[in-house]
From TrEMBL:
This is ATP synthase epsilon chain. The keyword Ion transport applies. GO terms for molecular function: ATP binding; proton-transporting ATP synthase activity, rotational mechanism. F-type ATPases have 2 components, CF(1) - the catalytic core - and CF(0) - the membrane proton channel. CF(1) has five subunits: alpha(3), beta(3), gamma(1), delta(1), epsilon(1). CF(0) has three main subunits: a, b and c. It comes from Nocardioides glacieisoli. Residues 90-134 form a coiled coil. Its main location: membrane. It holds the Pfam family ATP-synt_DE_N. Keywords: ATP synthesis, Cell membrane, CF(1), Coiled coil, Hydrogen ion transport, Ion transport, Membrane, Transport.
Amino acid sequence: MADLKTDKVLQVELVAADRLVWSGQATMVIARTTEGDVGILPNHAPLLSSIIEGVVDVQTTDGETWIAAVDAGFLSVADNRVSILSERAEMSHEIDLEKARQDLERAQSSGENDDAAAEAVRRAEARIRAAERAS
């Protein structure tokens, strides 16, 4: 790998409540906030935002793309460090696509219209998008 200056890369940590999901250097991170999708590049202005259920896309300095499904949480950016904190997070390669589709179908057919049911639908949809985008 080429010698990258610290002002040209982001140090990224994707953290779930129970574990560190992914950590490494990246050239770009895309996440969905409550205000819409945000792209983070090196030297981004400091930012603290809420994220919603969705997909996080990390472009590494090695040219790889890592995709994760995340629940609601927080995104923090400062001094080329990006922290994504979520109750649950899964890397796309950890997701069983067929099971995620079954979870979505079950959540949609539950007949409930409360916040928990809507959250279950959004979580299942995010898991499916992450798994499909990685394949």
